Amino acid sequence: MAEIDGKTRVLGLLGNPVAHTFSPAIHNTVAEETGDNVVYVPFHVESEEQLGDAVRGAYALNLLGLNVTVPYKQAVIPYLKEIDPVAKAIGAVNTLVRVDGGYRGYNTDYKGLRRALEAEGVVIWKHDVVIVGAGGAARAAGFMCGEAGVKRLCILNRTVEKAEHLAADIKALFPKMEITALPLTQSAKIPFQKFLAIQCTKAGLAPNTNETPVASPLFFQKCELAYDCIYNPEETLFLKKVKEHGGTGWCGIGMLLYQGIAAYELWMDSHVPQRAVDLAREELLSFLRAGKRKNLVLVGFMGSGKTTVGKTLARLTGCPLVDCDEEIVRAAGKKVTEIFQEEGENGFRNRETALLKSLVASGKEGVIYSTGGGVVIREENRPLLKELGTVVLLDISAETVIARLGKDRTRPLLQGPDRTKKVRTLLVRRKDAYQQAADLEVDAGHGTPEEIAKNILARTGFAGAGRKDRRG
Ligand code: NAP
Q: Which of 193, 242, 286, 328 is the most buried (most CB within 10 A)?
């Protein structure tokens, strides 16, 4: 990476929060590849009252350009010297470019979406387009359609008034476009035989990965191509349904990447070469996926070694090990066997789900979680586990379980005679759930706990709370 010297120009991000931003991953990678003497830094702006000072201060300090993120994309508009007409119509600005006396505001989300679609070979203007949603991303998508020359557009939204409002705003700037607004429930009335769908709602965003804004088979039969602005998960239920019906679809990573590239090009007034774009994509992907590496979550059948391997992982990484069953026991004030006896398996599972939700909400990083053997059974728990961290399945055979559990009689689900048969039946029954929950499977039937733990560290890249340092 180029050294910072007296000529280095500063680019930055204004927002709150900014601590987990992916933007430095894009811009500093591009700068490194192109050799541009710039550095990109996030700036935390505590409140809206300080936003004007932040923009004026940035100009006074000779900052070349800025991104603006949540919650200031609208609030920043009064502090601009100039505004791009499309950004004005969208009503949100995410990029500030230095001009004489201040900054000119742009919206690069719509440019990013357009380039992401074009990069996939989509000739946008040739399609009838259905936008699902009417929030910020949908506004960017709607104006992108106008700019790209789309002739017929249909906007579907849960709150139809917002779809109608957006339709009127787009029509004002692109009067030749035919635009229909419909409530989500009336997707059957979409006036097209085939269409390109742009999914702009929050339905399906992690951890609510079992949601989709539309479920009607007719919608998916007519949907030839689909772009889902969501990138976490990389394949939403919406995209899955598109593909099941023979359509082609992409997730929002390209939009995220190209909104950054478009901003960089505006700041530097030059074209970013393809190699720098490719490197920025790689860096962005590894940044987004590393977000999942914040914790390790061990799942597996009883006796698969979650505690032993967990302890070894904790020793090797210096991270704390949290045993979920122990947390449940502590909160309930009774043993697992007592919870099963008094509240039934369902009562125990309710406690387990509540614990997972609170662990996700805590936002803690650098923790190794050892979970109960049956945590994966509940469908609702699987996305929560993935949200918590990288989920590692300790894979094990029924024979090894029996050999390891020996005479252990504390396992509530293995009470009574014929334990071997019970283990086999439970393993078969849970196999799919384990595989759906896991990001990766590790053979836990062979090797020492240290070998298994080292294998996990090598395959996940987990390094506890320590993250790769980045400039900015
Ligand atoms: P927003 O302004 O808050 O709008 C949210 C939209 O989602 C509204 O249309 C809302 O409908 C709809 N919605 C929310 N929950 C829903 C549900 N359960 N079922 C159906 N509709 C639902 O949010 P936004 O900024 O537009 O972001 C929307 C999505 O796009 C987010 O998932 C975001 O991550 C993604 N995004 C991606 C990029 C990228 O670069 N890839 C950029 C921007 C946004 P109502 O109007 O009825 O409330």
A: 242
For residue 324, which amino acid is it? Answer: C
Q: Identify the CATH class of 111-251.
A: alpha beta
Examine domains 111-251 and 296-460 and report if their fold is the same.
yes
pTM of the model: 0.71
Catalytic residue at 454? no
**Catalytic residue chosen out of the listed positions 73, 292, 294, 306:** 73
Closest by Cα among 461, 113, 455 to 286: 461
Domain 9-107+267-288 fold is Rossmann fold (3.40.50)
The pLDDT tens digits of the residues spanning 319-367 come to: 999 999 999 999 999 999 999 999 999 999 999 999 999 998 888 888 9
Q: Is the CB of 200 under 6 A from ligand 1?
A: yes
User: Domains of the chain: which residue ranges?
Assistant: 9-107+267-288, 111-251, 296-460
Report in angstroms the alpha-carbon separations of 139 from 72, 123, 134, 198, 264: 16, 20, 6, 11, 22
Cβ of residue 231 lying under 6 Å from some atom of ligand 1: yes
CATH of domain 296-460: 3.40.50.300
User: CB–CB of 93/55 below 8 Å?
Assistant: no
CA within 13 Å, CB half, 274: 1
The reported pLDDT for the residue numbered 246 is 96
C-alpha 137 to ligand 1 mean position (Å): 7
CA of 410 to the centre of ligand 1 (A): 47
The pLDDT of residue 427 is above 70: yes
> Which residue, 193, 233, 192, is CA-closest to 212?
233
